[in-house]
Amino acid sequence: MLVKKLKEYDDDYIAWFINHSESTAKNHYTIKHQSHPEDYEANAPNLGDFFSDIGGQELIFVVNGAELISACSLRILEQVKKAKITILYIKPERSLLSAIEKKNENLCFKVFQNYARSGVFERMYLVNNENLESILGPLSIKNYEESIIGTIAHAFYSIQFLSQKETLMGELAPPDPACKLATFGVIDLAAGTEKMFYDLKMPREFHYLYGLPESSINDNSTFLAIREQLYQKSETKVFEQKEDAGELLSLIEGMDLIPKIKTNYVIVELEQQEPAAFFIAFTSAIQ
Questions:
Q1: pTM of the predicted protein model
Q2: H or E, element range at 225
Q3: Quick check: 162 and 177 in contact, CB under 8 A?
Q4: What is the pLDDT of residues 138-178, one digit of tens each?
Q5: Which of 54, 75, 178, 209 is a good FRET partner for 229, with 20 to 30 A between their CA atoms?
Q6: Helices 144-164 and 2-9: crossing angle, nearest 10°?
Q7: Residue 52, exposed/middle/buried by CB under 10 A (0-12, 13-18, 19+)?
């Protein structure tokens, strides 16, 4: 559903669907239901021909940690040759999972992170459904999935869109190569607050993307609010809490060796009437 939503925002996305749904579409592959994660891994299909047109393109691979089918994800990705792979991992509400689903989710979450940190993937973006619930407020059974997916897709697409537009101010420098894990979120410019889609531990770098209408660009108060937000973040140290650093913090406390968070930003002009602001947070730390 998330892939379909992304394609609604940008028809240039070339989508491949690998799931349980029945379809005869050329870009769809149906995997049979299995009763256990190990069965999905053991019976992972040969998709060499299915992925033959990808080549060296950038590939966004969406993984829903709640689904047992995620157990065969790595076997599938091994068959993708040359592509630059980015993982978008959706961490589910764990209280809704069975014991087998929890065990599978734990394993997938850890293994994907290790693969990303080792350089197999370009990056791994983490999103937690619990964070989205907190941001969106009370959700009904009927609109839960649609609201969650819609929010993720809108933010992810908007970040790609803003990062590719001509900038009025600022530049996004590539993050440290070690920072393979990331999340993203939305900014409330009026309140000066950031709402992160995953509670990332020890973020080391932030990219801020501000899309402003002409009225905001000509308003000095908007610029002052952005400048203050960037200043406050750049003065924040990577280890904000002791539990983030563990024994390392005890060794360097009082020595002023704790690094500060690096920030980059871009401001672009939008034709719409309301501002749109987002951010990406990067880390090298296993979550």
A1: 0.90
A2: helix 220-234
A3: no
A4: 989 889 999 999 999 999 999 999 999 999 999 999 999 99
A5: 178
A6: 40
A7: exposed
